[in-house]
Amino acid sequence: MRLICPRELSQRLCAGTLPLTPCLLSLSNVSSMEAAINTLVSQFKAFAGKEGSNHTLSKNELQSLLTSQLPHYTKNASDSSVTDQLMSSVDKNNDGELSFLEFWQFIGQLASTHGGFNK
Ligand SMILES: [Ca+2]
Ligand SMILES: [Ca+2]
């Protein structure tokens, strides 16, 4: 059996050409940026799975995620009216739920502000 280097393993896993379970990806040597993406995806799934659809964040799930995972990036997230305002600005298609892409754009806005790119 030929050994596969971690980079090729990741590439083939992403391309879906290797019939392996995703847990093997965590055994390979992922970069810090890949680990950051993995964290965002896994945290979104963990919080989105608490109620309603497993694929979207309700307002309650968003509030729970913000207060536990982003306490230094989002102020007053425990205030329900603040979460209401945030939800309505981030929920682009106004269906009352945050899809992963809507969540990702919100993270992008946070990161942009944090990085000083909004000045
Ligand atoms: Ca949900
Ligand atoms: Ca939405």
TrEMBL record:
One of its GO terms (molecular function) is calcium-dependent protein binding. Keywords: Calcium, Metal-binding. Residues 78-113 form the EF-hand domain. GO terms for cellular component: extracellular space; perinuclear region of cytoplasm. SUPFAM superfamilies: EF-hand. InterPro entries: EF-hand-dom_pair (IPR011992), EF_Hand_1_Ca_BS (IPR018247), EF_hand_dom (IPR002048), S-100_dom (IPR034325), S100_Ca-bd_sub (IPR013787). The keyword Plastid does not apply. This is EF-hand domain-containing protein. It comes from Pangasianodon hypophthalmus (Striped catfish). PROSITE patterns: EF_HAND_1, EF_HAND_2. PANTHER family: PROTEIN S100-A11 (PTHR11639:SF130), S100 CALCIUM-BINDING PROTEIN (PTHR11639).
